[in-house]
Design goal:
Blueprint: E1 2-4, E2 10-15, E3 25-30, H1 39-48, H2 50-63, E4 71-75, E5 83-88, H3 99-116, E6 121-124, H4 136-152, E7 160-165, H5 168-187
Parallel strand pairs: 2-7, 3-5, 3-6, 6-7
Antiparallel strand pairs: 1-2, 4-5
Length: 191
């Protein structure tokens, strides 16, 4: 699925492996200790090689980690990108402990970092929907609405956002929500 935005910007939903798609920046679903892990985090570190962890070692030494809802940037090592943005999503409890705001902030801070680093293409996974347990429908709505709001902004430097979804089921949820909330709101004249 591809959704067009003002100024030639695009949001694309793709089933695939985030570590194999060429972009300027890959978003990694990281943990607050920035120590690597499973899922997307493990895949990014395996494909990117040890250079990424060496940079994270330096960040941990100076900052101690990365708070939930925040993001840090490193080089991309052997990945087909210039940067990896390590976004720390929330562990889902019940949705009433700041999780929606923290999740939205992951996407916002990555897009802000993209502007500061001259990134024009960026790929995101479905942050927090794996072992962090965020319900897929809720997480997809937050991700899509946060990204769409930024792509509609006149000052957004990013031209192409890819949501790289692990499987067809995850893709179907995101595509359904995008069709209902993003494309319908745009055709109704929403900003």
């Amino acid at each position: 699925m591809e959704i067009d935005f003002p100024h030639g910007r695009k949001l694309r939903l793709v089933v695939g492996d985030i570590t194999r798609i060429r972009v300027d920046a890959i978003v990694n679903a990281a943990n607050s200790g920035l120590r690597g892990g499973g899922g997307v985090d493990g895949a990014v570190h395996r494909a990117g090689g040890p250079a990424i962890m060496r940079e994270l070692d330096g960040i941990r030494k100076s900052a101690g980690g990365c708070p939930t809802g925040s993001t840090v940037a490193t080089g991309a090592g052997s990945l087909p990108a210039q940067f990896v943005f390590h976004a720390v999503g929330p562990v889902y409890r019940d949705g009433r402990h700041g999780e929606p705001e923290q999740l939205a902030n992951c996407y916002r801070t990555c897009l802000d970092l993209a502007g500061r680093h001259g990134v024009r293409t960026i790929s995101f996974p479905a942050i927090s929907t794996g072992v962090y347990g965020y319900p897929m429908e809720e997480a997809a709505g937050i991700a899509l609405e946060t990204i769409a709001l930024r792509l509609r902004s006149a000052d957004c430097p990013v031209q192409d956002v890819l949501l790289i979804l692990f499987d067809q089921g995850t893709y179907s949820v995101h595509a359904r929500i995008a069709a209902a909330r993003i494309t319908s709101s745009r055709s109704a004249g929403s900003p």
